[in-house]
Amino acid sequence: MARKIQDNSFLYSILRPYVDMHARHSYRRFEVHGEDALPKDGSLIFGINHSNTLMDALVILATSNHKKVFMARGDIFKNPTVAKILNFLRILPLFRIRNGIAAVRNNSETIDRAVDVVHDRVGLYLFPEGQHRTKHSLLRLSKGIFHIAMDANMQFGKEKPVYIVPTAIEYGDYFRFRTTVLVNYGNAINVTDFIQNSTEENEAVLMNQLKEQLFDRISELFTFIPDDEDYDAIWEIVKMKNEKRVGGLYRKMLRNRATVEKVLQYRKDHPEEAQQLFEKVNRFSDNRRQNRISVTSTAKKRPFLNALWKMLVMAAGLPYFVASTLATALVWLPNFLIKRKLKDPAFGNTVTFCVRLLIFPPIVIAGAIVSFCMLPWYWALCSSVLLVFAHNMFIDYRELSRRCLSDFRWSFKRKLRKEYNDLQLNKLF
Q: Which of 10, 49, 196, 370 makes a 20 to 30 Å CA pair with 265?
């Protein structure tokens, strides 16, 4: 009997905890919400927004220890060796029309394998937008996930219900490593009940109705902003309003959504005033970026004091940072060189993750061996522990330095600060 993609694999089970650990350590804060409400009585297919390349799948993988199978666009399976690796990683291909009619014919076999996955009560994870995009919005959803759900329901829906679980990932930043990430699971769509209770017999119509439901439910799980000409201005307003307010990532997302609703309502009620405001916000945003000022700094009431406090922290951590920089040079230097050649900067965090995953562990092992050979055991143990966190220190210290300089610049940009105050965002929203 042929081996199934969801079957247990000894090598996979050894490697996965290591990969999950690195995925979680790629973020300063990693929060999962709504997992307790996932249905327990049926088969689950997860539909997820796609905004940050391979990191999306790695983040989802690290949310729990449950067995997971993913689906990815079929064109990356062209190379036989790559296809074997992806199959080992529990990733199935899903082809689209643009891959050619011959390739799309392979989908029938893939869908059968995907249906078998969910039949075995293994979670199947798809990104139905079909391509990544670093925006707080959604592209049109492709039909693959609905084909699988409806086929699964046809085959075994009478035994157990089939669910599509809307899922959203929200990042603190799409391009900075060691930022924050929230994974938010929403109310599942019971495909079995939906089809049984529907009077519609046309499969295409049913599929479009499911597509609309999933789109709406995913958009409710993160900071969703309509992708129109005002997108940039609205997102800038949201960041300035909520950047420094305390609370968990889920609460911050809810505040972001509330701000978006207020801005959209203001645009509806006062279209001319809203457009004037958006123009001012965009000008301010351009000036802010030209002056290399973080939006975090604009939320500070006393940016100069904040900068001084950061300088004290940096002074205390400087020896460790210098040592970390030297110890991890073989990680950050090739990472820097590779990222310079990227055409799509969204792949930057994926590159950093992969370089760190492959190169950093040998450095830690070699450093520990040298330490225990040359130093007393207690000093060797201390240096080994510090080495384990050296790359995080390198990343976080540089981020702290960036924010410190930003706070200083913001302190002395009186004209820009007046421009910010003239926006009167707190009064409007």
A: 49
Closest CA to 207 of 140, 156, 159: 140
DSSP 36: G
| CATH superfamily of this structure's domain 10-219 | Glycerol-3-phosphate (1)-acyltransferase (3.40.1130.10)
Q: What is residue 301's predicted lDDT score, i.e. its pLDDT?
A: 85
Sequence spans of domains, the chain: 10-219, 231-291+420-428, 303-412
Cα separation, 400 vs 155, in Å, equals: 55
* Cα distance between residue 20 and residue 24, in whole Å: 6
Say how far apart CA 336 and CA 353 lie, in whole Å.
12
| pLDDT of 12 | 94
Rounded to whole angstroms, how far apart are CA atoms 65 and 296? Answer: 34
Structure tokens at 250: 């889920």
Phi, psi angle pair for 147, to nearest 5°:
-60, -45
pLDDT value at residue 228? 95
pLDDT of residue 33: 97
Q: Which residues of the chain have pLDDT under 50?
A: none
C-alpha 338/C-alpha 327 separation (Å) is: 19
Rounded distance, CA 218 to CA 139, Å?
A: 11
Cβ burial of 243 (10 Å; 0-12, 13-18, 19+) is middle
Q: Given this model, what pLDDT does residue 108 score?
A: 80
Sign, Cα dihedral of 181, 403, 359, 334? positive
For residues 150-161, one letter each, b for 16 or more C-beta atoms within 10 angstroms of the residue's C-beta and e for the rest, the string is bbbbeebbeebb
CB–CB of 394/332 below 8 Å?
A: yes
Q: Say how many CA atoms lie within 13 Å of 318 toward its Cβ.
A: 6
Structure tokens at 96: 């689209």
Taking a C-beta distance cutoff of 8 angstroms, is the pair 50, 129 a contact? yes
Provide the token pair at 63.
């949310």
